[in-house]
Amino acid sequence: MKDRRQDIINASLAVLRESGYSGFTQPRVAAEVGLRQSHLTYYFPTRVDLLVGVARVAIDRQLAAIDVVLEVSSVRGAAKAIANVVVRHENTRVIMALVQAADQEPALRELFRELADGIILRAGKLLRNLNIEPTDEHCYQLHSMSVGMAVVDLATARKDGERRAARTLETALTLMTKGKGQ
Predict the structure, then answer these.
(1) Where are the alpha helices (DSSP H) in 20-69?
(2) 43 Cβ partners below 8 Å, 6+ apart?
(3) From residue 33, how far is each of 9, 26, 48, 90 by CA, in Å?
(4) Rounded CA gap, 40 and 64, in Å?
(5) Distances from the Cα of 160 to the Cαs of 27, 41, 83, 93, in angstroms?
(6) Are 182 and 131 in contact (CB under 8 A)?
(7) Residue 6 contacts by C-beta under 8 Å, 6 or more apart in sequence?
């Protein structure tokens, strides 16, 4: 038996990737998944309910992608692994659309706090794996650099974006190591 809720979430992610927040409507999602809007609203009664469902999945996927980075134990390997996540434009498009939605829908803000807190927690774990004693500032710096690079890479679409991100992250991580006298 098909999982209609998952089909709707996947269609919603596709609509966000292609049309952004402004193009995200229940009729467009229903058409994407091949359902009548009334059937869609059976599962997600309002647009906000649908956005919250989509945000939950997108955030879980983003944190799972970051969890893979935690397995790396060298600065260069960590920089490359983070850069690989940074240049996934489909993820950046969805997260940016959800950020715009969160600005207008308070129900999404708590989910973004969860995402930010989850990333900061993982940044601390990664730094410890790299023998860098993490400070809050290190974690915030790593997070903000990664987000900034993801947005800039999406906007510029440079062919060498992943290499540039990896080099920048490797430099930052190396400076964190040297800054702690290690």
Answers:
(1) 26-33, 37-43, 47-69
(2) 4, 5, 8
(3) 9, 11, 18, 19
(4) 27
(5) 38, 43, 11, 19
(6) yes
(7) none
Q: What is the DSSP letter of 21?
A: T
Tens-digit pLDDT profile for residues 101-114 = 888 888 899 998 99
State the amino acid at position 65 in one-letter form: A
Q: Encoding tokens for residue 116?
A: 């930010």
Q: Which residue segments constitute the domains of the chain, with CATH numbers given?
A: 54-179 (1.10.357.10)
Pair of tokens at residue 123:
């940044």
**Residue 108 and residue 117 in contact, taking contact as beta carbons nearer than 8 Å:** no
- CA torsion, points 9, 10, 13, 19, in degrees to nearest 10? -110
- Read off the DSSP letter of residue 44: S
Whose CA is closest to 119, among 150, 83, 89, 144? 144
User: Taking the chain (182 residues) in consecutive chunks of 10 residues, what is each chunk's mean pLDDT?
Assistant: 86 92 92 92 92 93 90 92 91 89 88 93 94 92 94 91 93 83 42
- The answer to whether 172 touches 78, Cβ cutoff 8 Å, is no
174 HSE (CA, 13 A, CB side): 9
